[in-house]
Amino acid sequence: MRLKMTMENKCVAYILSRNFHYTMDYIARGLGVSQGTISNSIKEVEWLIRMGELNCELESIKEMLRQKGYSRQVPEIPTINLSGKIPVVNPIEKIQR
């Protein structure tokens, strides 16, 4: 039996996806639901945000996730060398230095 998504779980999914850039598939596996459930949950939270009902709750959940060690996931960009002579620097590595 699949777990029912509570509003807190939906907010966690929204924050992990939109703020920390985790994939929906990764979040779904962590919460024991389908990727489609995560997608629908994120859409629901986005709608509630537009209605002005969740901003305070989202901030407290975001802080709780940071305290548990979650952080922004930066996708890796491969280094590409087309000519074999001039190395192309990954722009994210350049920013992080």
| H and E order | HHHHH
Mean residue pLDDT: 78
> If you compute it from the alpha carbons, what radius of gyration comes out, rounded to the nearest whole angstrom?
17 Å
- Number of strand segments: 0
What is the terminal-to-terminal distance? 47 Å
Q: How much beta, percentage-wise?
A: under 5%
What helical percentage do the residues reach? Answer: 55-70%
Anisotropy-based shape: globular
Largest sheet: none
**Structural class assignment:** mainly alpha
Q: How many DSSP helices?
A: 5
- Low-confidence parts: 91-97
Oligomer: single chain
Task: Characterize the structure shown.
The protein is globular and about 35 Å long. Helix 1 (7-18) crosses helix 3 and helix 1 packs across helix 4 (55-67). It has helices spanning 7-18, 24-31, 35-50, 55-67, 91-96. By secondary structure, the chain is mainly α. It is 57% helix and 0% strand.
SSE order and pairing:
Blueprint: H1 7-18, H2 24-31, H3 35-50, H4 55-67, H5 91-96
Summarize the model shown.
By secondary structure, the chain is an all-alpha fold.
